[in-house]
Write a structure and sequence with these properties.
The chain has 112 residues and is mostly helical. The chain is built from four helices and no strands.
């Protein structure tokens, strides 16, 4: 099953590369496809009885940490794509601290 998940994820990534689209929308679709594939694989493993549902010690921390990483890193990438398109579309030349907006955004999302 891990090999099937690896092949599925590589297929999703290859499909994204073939689109040659590096936009916020393509990123969102790519991430949605990865999440759906993982949920489907987890459901399939549960149905086949290969794994049991996990709700033991540390479950809330694992889910919380995954959400934290997804929010800080994933949302940062998404916002960067949206902001980059706005900057490019409006021909903005912004001078300032290199990656300052990204650092501030990461800190804001982490605090929230």
């Amino acid at each position: 099953m891990p090999l099937a998940i690896l092949v599925l994820h590589l297929t999703i990534d290859l499909a994204k590369q073939q689109c040659k689209s590096d936009t916020a929308a393509s990123f969102a679709w790519d991430q949605a496809a990865h999440i759906v594939s993982l949920i489907a694989a987890g459901w399939l493993l549960l149905q086949m009885g290969w794994v049991t549902a996990f709700s033991g010690h540390g479950y809330a921390w694992i889910v919380g940490f995954a959400g934290f990483i997804g929010t800080v890193q994933g949302a940062g990438y998404f916002v960067g794509k949206v902001a980059g398109r706005i900057k490019e579309k409006n021909n903005l030349k912004i001078n300032g601290l290199e990656n300052g907006g990204a650092m501030i955004g990461s800190l804001e999302r982490a605090l929230i």
